[in-house]
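The data are quoted verbatim for completeness:
=====
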Amino acid sequence: MNIRKSTIAGTILILSLYLIPYSAAQHKQNLEAIHARLAKDVRHELLMLSNYSLFDNLEFEITGVDTVILSGQVTRPILKSDAENAIRRLEGAGKVVNKIDVLPLSPQDDNIRIAVYRALLNKPGLDRYLLRAASPIHIIVKNGNITLVGNVAMQADKDLAGIAANEVPGTFKVTNNLKVEK
């Protein structure tokens, strides 16, 4: 009887040594699939916001199982709340943390935004980014400081955008955070 119990215990021990790593790996794979689906849904919802423009920047991060952390900068407070509400309605989104920064109202910053947009539009090749319904380049201006964010196809486009933004008068600093797509 004791031999039978020890054989069963040994079998259970061996099976658990194989199943636990498999279970952990499968859990990680399932979590990655959940995150990928949720990221796709969040990205879609943010791009579909009616007030979202190239002068706003919305970003997100997914942590834990279903926590969505929103970040970025927006020119209108309503866009901050619209983004949060849209993500809260998503199936699969649990907790939503809204860290979106509302840029200060400033006629000077508004003028700089338009000037940077025109400067980029006038550079040959950059117009293809700005004339889309959802521009991959975003122009963020805060207190006279310009930050370019988004994606471009080539390093030359990133460099050209930085040069164009630096040519705009009345600005203090230009930060070029454009990423080159691989």
In short: The chain has five helices and seven strands. The mean pLDDT is 88.
